[in-house]
């Protein structure tokens, strides 16, 4: 998969495109000034016969909540913007560099990965500003990995890193018409990533194609699995895929229509579709918030302790900073989620223990019971509602989504472009039990291949307003 074009030429091409496109989408918050120097070094290695792997010389964008020792890591907050870069790369960034990837820059995100205020607008951060959807500049790029999704869609890189707690990879992937893979929690190292929840957080690939996502997962993941080996054509004979209609359908007529067409494609690939199933509701919002709030307080303090002395060390420090800089930080929405998290009493608290048990039972029990009862390899459903209008005053207006069961379970989830609704991209989501990442890649690649053969390549964005 390593490019036949020199790494320097590829970086030059992407940086030139960025100069024309970035003013429209605002996806990259911190470009890497050393990217071309890194490219030259990797070209020299190639000329000398040393190729580190399939991604040697490939530019990759990294979400701005993943530590990079040579570039600032802010999580979108001004509280970290003036701090020195982290003392070392996150393990996944180290793996990217060791594989010969070029860190092209950092991508904007929903501030604090969309866990600051309950009325937030995805794609906005005080540090990076507002990221827009390349398919409709007045529509949301989703979140929290907004910049990673928009950048891949806009042609600013074929490879990007996102992170997800609940929907933060698959949402912007679906809204921007790219592939997004949230791996099984624990498959990819969590260290060096600004946290929300150790039980749900993971980094993952955001790419143009499923095969690219598999190649990137090969670099990021622990273990010896070659995920690209799962990209083996359209034949899904012998595969059983469940279609849980409830509660994951019915919130968007256009999205349902596109997804029905996607099911026909899967059937033509030879898959057996077991239809009209249902997943139990993924637990109440209160239980989910209890888990995230309790874990964030503990996990954030541990992370901030790795940063340079003199910066914030606790959620209380971050909350105080936001109040002191309210004209910049709190101009659009508040910080009630940070405040709620700061008020929690640790991971031994009875309310956390009970909520975590409920979340695990709802996520893992719901998915695994349905798979087992129907002898299924995976589940398929619509990914996310089409991109909603950007509204910084009132916040996001999400009609529906697919991510909560997999989030609570810590299980993998993959969104692949399935079509357009009124010119807006939508995605098809595959989910399964823990460790089924290779299976989801196989299904998504088969669907992607068959859809392109039937309907042609996915339309590219035109960077216009949607009306």
TrEMBL record:
<dbReference type="InterPro" id="IPR036928">
    <property type="entry name" value="AS_sf"/>
</dbReference>
<protein>
    <submittedName>
        <fullName>Amidase</fullName>
        <ecNumber>3.5.1.4</ecNumber>
    </submittedName>
</protein>
<dbReference type="InterPro" id="IPR023631">
    <property type="entry name" value="Amidase_dom"/>
</dbReference>
<dbReference type="Pfam" id="PF01425">
    <property type="entry name" value="Amidase"/>
</dbReference>
<dbReference type="GO" id="GO:0004040">
    <property type="term" value="F:amidase activity"/>
</dbReference>
<keyword id="KW-0378">Hydrolase</keyword>
<feature type="domain" description="Amidase">
    <location>
        <begin position="10"/>
        <end position="440"/>
    </location>
</feature>
């Amino acid at each position: 998969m390593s490019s036949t074009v020199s790494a320097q030429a590829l970086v030059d091409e992407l940086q030139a495109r960025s100069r024309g496109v970035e003013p429209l989408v605002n996806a990259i918050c911190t470009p890497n000034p050393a990217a071309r120097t890194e490219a030259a070094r990797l070209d020299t290695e190639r000329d000398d016969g040393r190729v580190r792997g399939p991604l040697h010389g490939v530019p990759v964008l990294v979400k701005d909540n993943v530590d990079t020792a040579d570039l600032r890591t802010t999580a979108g907050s001004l509280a970290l913007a003036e701090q020195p870069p982290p003392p070392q790369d996150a393990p996944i960034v180290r793996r990217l560099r060791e594989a010969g990837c070029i860190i092209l820059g950092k991508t904007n995100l929903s501030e604090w990965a969309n866990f600051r205020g309950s009325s937030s607008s995805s794609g906005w951060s005080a540090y990076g500003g507002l990221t827009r959807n390349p398919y409709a500049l007045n529509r949301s790029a989703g979140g929290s990995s907004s910049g990673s999704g928009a950048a891949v869609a806009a042609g600013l890189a074929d490879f990007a890193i996102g992170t997800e707690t609940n929907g933060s990879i698959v949402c912007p992937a679906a809204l921007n018409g790219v592939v997004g893979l949230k791996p099984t929690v624990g498959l990819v190292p969590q260290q060096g990533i600004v946290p929300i929840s150790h039980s749900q957080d993971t980094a993952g690939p955001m790419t143009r194609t499923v095969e690219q996502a598999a190649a990137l997962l090969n670099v990021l993941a622990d273990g010896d699995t070659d995920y690209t080996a799962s990209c083996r054509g359209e034949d899904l004979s012998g595969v059983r895929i469940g279609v849980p209609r409830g509660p994951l359908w019915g919130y968007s007529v256009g999205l349902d229509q596109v997804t029905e067409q996607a099911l026909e494609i899967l059937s033509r690939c030879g898959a057996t579709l077991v239809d009209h199933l249902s997943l139990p509701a993924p637990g109440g919002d209160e239980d989910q918030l209890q888990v995230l709030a309790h874990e964030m307080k503990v996990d954030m303090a541990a992370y901030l302790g790795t940063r340079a002395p003199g910066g914030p060390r606790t959620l209380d420090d971050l909350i105080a900073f936001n109040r002191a800089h309210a004209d910049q930080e709190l101009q659009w929405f508040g910080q009630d989620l940070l405040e709620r998290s700061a008020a929690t009493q640790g991971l031994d608290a009875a309310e956390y223990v009970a909520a975590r048990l409920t979340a695990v039972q709802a996520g893992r029990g719901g998915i695994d019971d349905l798979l087992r009862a129907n002898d299924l390899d995976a589940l398929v459903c619509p990914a996310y509602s089409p991109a909603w209008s950007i509204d910084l005053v009132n916040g996001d207006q999400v009609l529906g989504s697919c991510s909560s069961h997999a989030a609570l379970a810590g299980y993998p989830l993959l969104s692949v472009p399935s079509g357009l609704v009124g010119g807006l991209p939508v995605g098809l989501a595959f989910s399964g039990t823990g460790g089924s990442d290779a299976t989801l890649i196989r299904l998504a690649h088969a669907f992607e291949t068959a859809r392109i053969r039937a309907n042609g390549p996915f339309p590219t964005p035109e960077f216009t307003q949607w009306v």
